[in-house]
Amino acid sequence: MTRSFIAHSALGERLKFRSMTGQERISALFEHRVRLISDMPNIQPRSMLGEDMSIEVNLATELGGAGSRFLSGQVTRFAYIGKDDGDMCVYEATLRPWLWYATRRSDFRIFQFKTAPQILQEVLAPYGFAIDARLTGSYRTWDYCVQYSESDFSFASRLMEQEGIYYFFSHAQGSHQLVLCDGADSHTELPAGPVRVSYHAGVLAAQILEQDFIDSWSHSEDIASGNFAADDYDFRKPNAEIDTMRQQPAGHSRDSFEIYDWPGGYTELADGENYARLRLEQLAGRRELVSAEGNLRHMAPGYLFELARHPNAQENRRYLIEAVTYDFQENALRVIGAADAAYSESTSSTSYRQSFEVLPDSATYRPARVTPRPRTTGPQTAVVVGPAGEEIHTDQYGRIKVQFHWDRYGKRDENSSCWIRVSQTWAGSNYGAMHIPRIGQEVIVDFLNGDPDHPIVTGCVYNAAQMPPWELPRHKTQTGFQTHWSKGGGGKHMLRFEDSRGTEHIELSTDHGNTHLHMGYLMNQGSGVQRSYGFELRTNEWGSIRADKGLLLTTYTQDFAQKTSRDNPDGHEQMGATLAQSNALMQAAGQAVAATKSLVSAMAQGKNQTLSGLVQGVQSLGGVPQAVAALAAGGSPEAGVSDDPDPAMADAQQMLDLSRKIDKPVVSIVSPEGQTMISPRPIVVSSGQSVSMRSVSALTMTTGAQLTQLAAKGMLTQVSEGGQINVVSDGDIVSHASAGAINLVSKTDASITSTAANANLTGQKSVVIQAAEQDVFVTAKTSISLICGKSSIVLLADGTVKINGVKGLVNFTDNLDQRGGKIFLNCDAPIGGGDPEMEVATLEEDAHPAAVLAPAAAAEEAMDQPGVRSPTLDRQLAQIRREGWKLRFGPAKGGSSASERKKTITLDSSLKGRPLAFNAAAAHEVGHALDKREMDTSSRQAYINSGLRAEGSAQINEIRVQREILANGGPDILANENSHHMAIYNRAYDEALRTGNFERAEQTIGAVYGTNKASGTGGKTYYEMYGERYDDLPLTKLKKFFGIE
Fold first, then answer.
1. CA nearest 112: which of 89, 141, 73, 87?
2. In Å, what is the CA distance from 914 to each residue of 861, 904, 924, 955?
3. Burial (Cβ within 10 Å: 0-12, 13-18, ≥19) of residue 135
């Protein structure tokens, strides 16, 4: 007889099938318990574990049919049960799918930027079994998904349940395959046995022999929730509405109940709508269920079949098999015939039974969300990470990356986690606190709703590698913050509060510029020695105090119960008293100014009357017009001083008003005990209007060097009493009125005295000495001289009087007495007059008869010799002529040169009649003319180097012309040059042609050229010539004068 069930294992026929019970369901792990018999009493269970075992089910019946189906699985448990009545050894094998191994392994693992199918593949691939992925949907990319203390199976199941993915197993001999599905297209008809299965019940069922059929069919419907709503929150779109709601057609009037899910597990509305659809499909799939039984062998979950012959025609349709329970029995020895008749007769033959659950194929199957989501039990710590070489790694939201202590796969870099938000003590729209944890810090991480997929940093903690900023418990009374410079450290910023009684203070500081603000008890932070009390602000860098609406600096104690911080009563009172005294002094000064101006006016009137008389006298003498005009111009004008002795008083009064309460942008500095302003360097006091310096008592201005007083509109010095002394111990005194007069006025005697040298009184036009009421005395110990041009009167101490002149006039309206021992009169007067004019002849710079030639004259003709023409040189000459250059001959043996300033090439006239040397010299100087680079005057050596480089450039032009003439069949214009030097020049030129580096060639040639004697320099080398030229530069002389070089 043919066996209906055959066990295929590693032991072959030594293990025979006896019975199998088990269940297989979509999205569940099957488990089959298989009883086996064997004549082997010593099968080791361990040898069977992990092996594949297949149960072959023969689908043939007496009425026909053929083929087999297989139920395969991994042996996960194998046990010896005992012996049966026939003395056969009985064993039991538990068969489970390979996916069951995923329940044996759990992990903590992070997946980033992957879809659910990609995550499933990564989790299940290491098990080494094939997966048939029949997925047709599109799946969101998970930015961050965590397997958190879950078995691989639980994690995969949870993820599939959320994404609407389910699975079943397809079986073959020796293997089974995991099939992933997400829709009706993933299912096919039963692969073996009839697809159309009949229903027989009651008496008819008892008459059916050896045929697979269904004899029990229970169809039920449930009330299901017909509405699903979900919502979530995305901090990146805090005001976005991402709530979703879906409903399905009501199957019953009570199907309108709603399930609301929060958080929905999404941040994009499209994902939320997809999840809502999946949940409704899962709920709808449970509305209508069928439980059935029958004498069946081929029913398998995940496949489709069609029901036939049911008395209710509506039941005869296609169904998806969701779950199958197996009960197979067979006495293998009886079927095949056994030697032991007692065993054969005492046991029954073959039976099989299947119960199963199905749902109409019109419904979409979705797995129920039964796998619990892991929840964290509290906060944990992690280490902040980021890219190599960085100290701070964050994004626009201040988020960070961390390495969790449980993460075995993270590389402690920027890919170790998702971006994690950091809790701040205060956070608002462009305001709040910001403390970004830095790479290496240990942070406290909690999880929103206990979800490992949503970490949030709630704080930072110290550890042995990240110690507090100051020593504890020594400084346990200190509170504050201390930062660390990034990158590389090297400094810090700090805000620290010291609450220790007796040394209370606050410190705000930065190591940048050693800048500190200390308030309270001031102490040396290193030694702890007290320094003072109060506050100190210091820096090694620059400092600024700015207050747009006013600034009050005061050392007065303020009564804040009655006053505000801007009130300045003490400063206002003190300034008012000073201005009152100053005003009294200024009134006296005003009176003195008025009196002085009246006196100066009277003096000017009397002086002008005297000058009028003098003018008349000079005119009666027929005096020269210049003298008359000078006298007629009169004396000095009246004193041009303002009537207001204190123009700054109005501004001072305004500042007094503003200092009462600082509510304008002014600065007021007030101190009851005085102020000092001290600097070893310059101090500048500047005002756009007026400056007032007022003192109730003395005012002293001293300087160790020059004191300068400048006034654009007049200067007034008023001393009410006590006199005024101006003493210059060493040096001169100069009082200079550039556009006006100097008036020295004294009520009593006025003296101008030189105690050790001359006293000089000089007038550009006239000098008037007047005694308004009495005499003018001019006395001298040795002589008195009156000199005017060619006329003079000299009075000597011995009584000699000398009067000298060219011509003269003596005119008296009254008597003239001439008395003397002897009187001589000479009547021979000289004839003629005037000095001859000297004519000065000038000579043009280029007027030497042999110097200048027209462009087409001798200098041009000298080059125009047969066989020595160079097209390159011709083009160069044409070019410099267009630029305004001229050629000329200079003195013989004077050398040749090119002057950029004069645009002139001067050729040594000794080259006339020597066409080879002439063309060589011309090519050299034209090379200079074409070189537009400036000479480097930064140093003497730089100047020499740039000169020699220019010589090298000119020599290269010579070689270029030389080779062109030779190529055209002409003579060697450089045949008479130094052969050793020419060899060096040519090698450098050839190297430049090869590499294109002509600057190097110029330097090489120039270095050699500098040893040559320069023509017209008295035998000096080019090195020496350029050095002397540098020394003669005006810039060089200025440098030497100022000690720069």
1. 141
2. 11, 21, 15, 19
3. middle
Q: What is the pLDDT of residues 686-733, one digit of tens each?
A: 888 888 887 877 878 888 778 787 777 777 787 877 778 877 877 777
* 153 confidence band (pLDDT: 50, 70, 90): very high
Does residue 582 share a domain with residue 516? no
Note down the domain range covering 1029.
Answer: 868-884+912-1041
Query: Under a CB-based contact definition with an 8 Å cutoff, are residues 203 and 384 in contact?
Result: no
State the Cα–Cα distance between residues 218 and 289, nearest whole angstrom.
8
Say how far apart CA 543 and CA 553 lie, in whole Å: 16
Among 373-387, 846-860, 1022-1036, name the one with the lowest average pLDDT. Answer: 846-860
Shared domain check, 561 and 527: no
Q: Of 893, 998, 895, 993, whose CA–CA distance to 954 is shortest?
A: 998
Distance CA 580, CA 653 (A): 10
Question: What CATH number does residue 31 fall under?
Answer: 2.30.110.50
Q: Are residues 572 and 490 in the same domain?
A: no
- The three-point CA angle 51-57-62 to 5° equals 165
d(CA 63, CA 280): 45
Q: Which residue has the tokens 């011309």?
A: 922
Q: How far is CA 277 from the centre of its chain?
A: 48
pTM of structure: 0.60
- Specify burial of residue 907 (Cβ count, 10 A radius: 0-12, 13-18, 19+): buried
pLDDT band per the 50, 70, 90 thresholds, residue 624:
very low
Q: H or E element: which one contains 897?
A: strand 897-899
- In 477-529, DSSP assigns E strands to 478-482, 493-498, 505-510, 515-523
Q: How buried is residue 550: exposed, middle or buried, by Cβ count under 10 Å (0-12/13-18/19+)?
A: middle
Q: Indicate left, alpha or beta for 398 from its phi (over 0: left) and psi (-120 to 50: alpha).
A: left
Backbone φ/ψ region at 228: left (φ over 0), alpha (ψ -120 to 50), beta: beta
Distance between terminal CA atoms of the chain?
124
Q: Is residue 317 part of a domain?
A: no
